[in-house]
Amino acid sequence: MRPEEADPDARWLTLVMHLTFYVLHLTALIRFIQRHPSSVNTTLVIVLAALLAGIYAAGVGRDTYAPTDPSMRRPQALRVVWLAAVVLVWAVLVELAPSFAWVAVPLIYAALRILPPVAACVLVGVLTVFVTIAQLRLAPRFDLDLVVGPAAVAGFATAVFLHMKRLAARQRRLIDDLIRTRRELAATERRAGTLAERQRLSMEIHDTLAQGLSSQQMLLQAAERTWDRDPAKAHGHVRSATKIVEHNLAEARRFVHDLAPADLAVSGGLPQALRTLAGRESDERLRVLVHAEEPGGPELPERVQSTLLRIAQGALANVREHARATTAVLTLTTLDDRAVLDVADDGRGFDPATLPETPQGSRGHGLPAIRARVRQLGGTLAVESAPGEGTVLTATIPLVGGQASD
């Protein structure tokens, strides 16, 4: 694509310059023929005028007025050869017929666009000298205006053109910088989105699949230990493990399709999902109780329900793995402006000051992951515990003015 095809302004300027050339060329030829109808040079002038018009027309399709790419060390050879041929024929024509002097106007713009600034200024000076000499030859006597006028106009036009050319080059650099910055920003956003998605996936896997696999492992180990002395109990452990496998499979399918937790698919919403979770997590080692108030107003947003259920799953996984508790209690309280989930256990407790703010080590999750989930919805997480005194985890999610609405 040629530059003037890409830029409507350049295409318009190209058209104006071509029309200007041919109007000045035709006017000069008519003026010469009217004043010198039978001169010995008339035929030669007509031939040279036709040659100039032909050479100029040959260059019209070669981006005559398109600016040279600033990244190139020198302009294209064909454009330079074309310009040299046009100027040479024009100079001979002006020597024979000074009326053609003003055809230099479009040639000056061609020189400024095709040549580097220094070479263009030199050629503009040469063209101006030819125009000045031609005007003096046509004048009945010496006139200082004919010397100063063309030089002043050519100098002013050249300065303005070079200034605009520098502005255009600066604008191109700014556009290139903007495009490069947008690409870098897009790459940064993609990296940030990838990291956020990786964190989300890791939390989902930890709170669902990993927890289920851990429960299956403990049940199967218990079945193995009791297989010989108490086959009925061992079979019960295997059946419980099978149910967990079925639930994990449902979680995995919904997880792949980015749907809500499987427990929320049943009727009853979050309270029923917490009861289902408690029943699945309860065994001879840990008893899980649920106190859930049915919401009096509108049902909690799906995102809030999903987050609170994941928090409950992660908290119970921590209780089972670290607390050595015998009882855990899930309490759901729904108010007008917030939803509160408390997870309390009677385990060995710990010092909350030792908790990391972000996932660390190979384990990588637990309470830091729960805290990240709460913050995503603009909520708060409080942990009350002490060694030997159990633990109470409280997650509060705002329902008005926060990020919890669907």
Helix-strand blueprint:
Layout: H1 3-6, H2 8-35, H3 42-60, H4 77-96, H5 104-114, H6 117-138, H7 144-226, H8 231-256, H9 269-281, E1 287-292, H10 302-323, E2 327-334, E3 338-345, H11 367-376, E4 380-385, E5 391-398
Parallel strand pairs: 1-2
Antiparallel strand pairs: 2-3, 3-5, 4-5
Helix pairs in contact: 2-3, 2-5, 3-4, 4-5, 4-6, 5-6, 6-7, 7-8, 7-10, 9-10, 10-11
Model description:
The chain contains eleven helices and five strands. With 406 residues, it is an alpha+beta fold. Among the domains are: 3-142; 268-406, Heat Shock Protein 90 (2-Layer Sandwich), CATH 3.30.565.10. It has a five-stranded mixed sheet with strand order 1-2-3-5-4, with helices on one face. Strand 1, helix 10 and strand 2 form a beta-alpha-beta unit. Helix 5 (104-114) packs antiparallel against helix 6 (117-138). Mean pLDDT is 80; it is low at 1-6 and 64-75.
Task: List the main descriptive attributes of the protein structure presented here.
kinase; Heat Shock Protein 90; 11 helices; HATPase_dom; single chain; disordered N terminus; 5 strands; kinase activity; rod-shaped; 64% helix; 406 residues; alpha+beta; Oxygen sensor histidine kinase NreB; five-stranded mixed β-sheet
